[in-house]
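Table S7 (text form). Paired inputs.
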Amino acid sequence: MMLAALLLAAQAASASVALGALADEVWEFRVREDPLLATAVGDHRFDDRLPSMSKVDLDRRHAYNLAALQRLTRIDREALSASERVSRDMLERELRDAVAEHGFGAWRMPWNADSGFHTGMAHMPAHVRLATTRDYENYIVRLRATPEYVRQQIHLLREGLTAGFVLPRAVLPSFDETIRAHVVEDARASVFYAPFTRFPAAVAEKDRERLRTAGLAAVREGPVAAYRALLDFYLAEYLPGARATTAAADLPRGAEYYAWLVKSFTTLELTPDEVHQIGRAEVARIRAEMDTVMRKTGFTGDFPAFLTFLRTDPRFYAKTPDELLKQAAWIAKRMDGKLPSLFGRLPRLPYTVEPVPAHIAPKYTAGRYVEPAMDGTRAGIYWVNTHALPSRPLYALEALTLHEAVPGHHLQIALQHELEGVPAFRRASGIGAFVEGWALYAERLGLEAGFYADPYSDFGRLTYEMWRACRLVVDTGLHAMGWSRQQAIDYLAGNTALSLHEVTTEIDRYISWPGQALGYKMGELKIRELRAYAEKELGPRFDLRAFHDAVLANGPVPLTTLEELIRAHVATAKTRGLTPSSGAE
């Protein structure tokens, strides 16, 4: 028995060391290959570089991921601790997804109607560290690297045109605005020049004029020139070559690609048809609740008439951008005060409320969360879209705020950044089914925290839940069942009180980013299912704060892994009582 125990301990130690070494190696490879990722997570060794997007480098990364996956599968999962098994499962999923994505050739379409490399690059001035003279010099070098970076992306987009792996023409009206915003006559008007209009105290006065001059030239010859070349390519080649169809099934290996996307984005073994049917059932359930709340408002007309009323009555819309921002901030601050009743552990890092940047606002959603810097030097940001105010209803603002700020994205992601004793890749991981599923679950938590007291606001909450349920129907409908763009627009518009502008923006997002929208509702359903399980199993011993802490304790994990963790949490709670969890169960 003594020898057997020693052998088991040796095997566990060997597996643990192997996993730790591989996880560290993979992370180091990722930050070296993607300097923008390195900057975002607080690793400033590569702040003067941009990623190489040459096909040679893409293939080299693919070969590395394949080799790393093979090494990972040789590590005995059963010899690992509970926390290490989570790390192994997450790393395996990330590597398998990267290998599959490369195999499908998704690199040929590095943008969609919502975002892409060109919008991501435009966030760089706000997200790069600019605290010292050296930081500014690195930034200038990075600016000068943008023409080559964009040239490589254009080459990939051309490969997509040749292969038919290209965006649908239907989603491209006004898409060029996200490029034109950066083609300015005076480089001083560029978002990339903004850091040179103000300097931190650590930048000596004697260096500032030199940096301004060098920065102005770098912006003119870097991003401005790069975006001008991108615009020329887009207008002359990409827009004319965009496909007439909208379904992912019409892409090369499209049906197989979409089936993989469904599993990848939901982290569940589901088919498009199964997701579609789940969505239909959720739409029917939520619609019954919406009808009940509609009657509480005193409205006597039918459902379509109520939607028209909500979309057109001025009382439901802010008159100025400041009014919308202040209302969002007030909701967020009220929720801050409710958090201790719902969570045992809260993050240290704060967040702020800002408008969506003007250069992306016209094609952007109602709000978005921008992650804080992992080194704690930049707070989280809750973006509120103040463009087209008649399409930003106040009755949906409580749900939006709870989703994007707290207890949604900010609380979850800030806690994730504070994880201790886990590989670095887990603090930066973003599994959409968990991240977005949690944020949708967080909207519902508002009911338990005293929000949605006004029936219009409660209808807004249901509209947001219905919106995510409709995504299951329209995304699968569009990409696997032959739905037209107009059919999808009509379905979303007929079942929610979203503005018609937002309906169209959202449908174009789903068309151009297949599968991504499925994670929200599937993740929320899994979290609610696990909560119901814990409540039933624990009865009067169920502690909501402890349950929430357990869900968030490991950061974003695949939904199958989350189920294992919560079942273990419940089993432990049965035997020793409940305390807020602070680590892997």
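Next pair, protein 2 of 2.
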Amino acid sequence: MNSHLRLPVWALLFVTQAGLGAGAGTESPEATRGVYFSEKSYQPVPLPRFAEIRDRLPSPLFEERPEWVSMYWKSWELAFKNFHEPASGSGYVSQFIDAAFNENIFLWDTCFMTMFCNCAHSLVPGIASLDNFYAKQHEDGEICREINRSTGRDYAPWANREGRQLFSRWGWTGVGNEPVVYQGRPTPQPPPELTLDALNHPVLAWAELESYRVTGDRERLGRVYEPLVRYYRALQKYLRQGNGLYMTDWASMDNSPRNAFLKGGGCAIDTSSQMALFGRNLATIAELLGKAPEAAGFAGEAGELSRAINALMWDPARQFYFDLTLEGKRAPVKTIAGFWPLVAGVASADQADDLVKELENPATFNRLHRVPTLAADQAGYDPAGGYWRGAVWAPTTTMVIRGLERYGRGALGREIVLNHLAIMGQVFQKTDTVWENYAPDAPAPGRPAKSDFVGWSGIGPILYLLEFAVGLKPDAASNTLVWEVASAKPLGVERYRFNRHVVSLKAEPSGGDGRSLKLSVASDGPFKLVVRHSGREETYPIAKGQNALSFPRLDRT
């Protein structure tokens, strides 16, 4: 979370004395905002209430860990408290979920919150929450990562009201108002609308494809395509250094010890990999929309960037990815940012193997609670969390898991998921709530961490529970649901939602051999069910209505 949790004194004085409250500062005229997005106004509908919607939400059965189910329902209850209608005059176009961290909505927080809201698509504000960011996109493509929830105006310190070339308002080391130095390329003109603090973590397209995987809503991809392309091009214009890599500042990981090495325009392994991921995601979306030449172009750009990342940011001696200083030297700090090349498809098979070794190394990332944001053998590591000095965060854990899946390491990904759920469950039993982040070396909330945080921490109790513990992985595009049954006790879910279907599934051990299951599936429409259990896989055509099945299939010839 890029959060303003612990502002330096100079920053507090800056905000106060400069009059940079939520409504201050110079912004682009409202008429020039959101010009690439078709939604222009909010059409009021009743805001969902937990008491009214609860009996329509997916209801998991997981007898192995009943506390995880309790945590699931608590997380939904907290999430419902953070659903909002657009304030009058804000210019927002959709109901939305917000972390309720402060008075602003956050872009990359919202991207990750949509991922668990996908599980209740059409019942709750989820992926449409991103519409408000598209509606506030600047004409040059920039989107501020932090926008006031009530006024719809960019968070004022992130507005480049001075009209300067790109700079960081709060800097890399607490000095503030530090300029970016472009090396090996011209300084982009005109100056950006926003500061570097505002332009971080370009994961919008990833969030859209995560939603598409569940909903199959291709029409939505068509509506968001141009805003995404414009955003991508704006980041290329302002964040790309002459070496082809991308910069960031404190805003990617607030207080990480990496930040000092990025000063002045150093290149970040996370931002660079995220831009490669962005390019590949745009290629996928373009292909789905029948835009083959554009798809090829984006894929080519992602490949070129991947080659630059591997040539400059991979350290063959340390077998890990590192940030680059402005002078082009690899920074010494080993952080979780080094795993972004997995989900981005940047790493080779051998590099992926080396990254897996780090994930399994108790001296670095294989801590009691996986995966810390700073390797445990690095200076400044905080076993209690220390925010981005070791804490375990939902978005970075999700990135690691999806990256492992991309490289065929789903078993390790599931191991990390179950570890995360187990620690969250222990903390939930002690505190009856969900936290912003968690300690890496104790079953405890991070120190510091905000409580009742759903918020992106809802990914674990909701998405992880359904996808990895119960084991349901949807592919709406092919109308297929994969069910990986790994528990020896009854499990399933009522009212599971994917591809406009509502499905109830239950698996129970059968026959006493641990390899056979009795399956019951009720669906409001036909789909293909793939069941994996005990090293075997069976495929079932599911018809509308009640379906009684056996695993392994008894009807095979």
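The longest strand covers residues 501-509.
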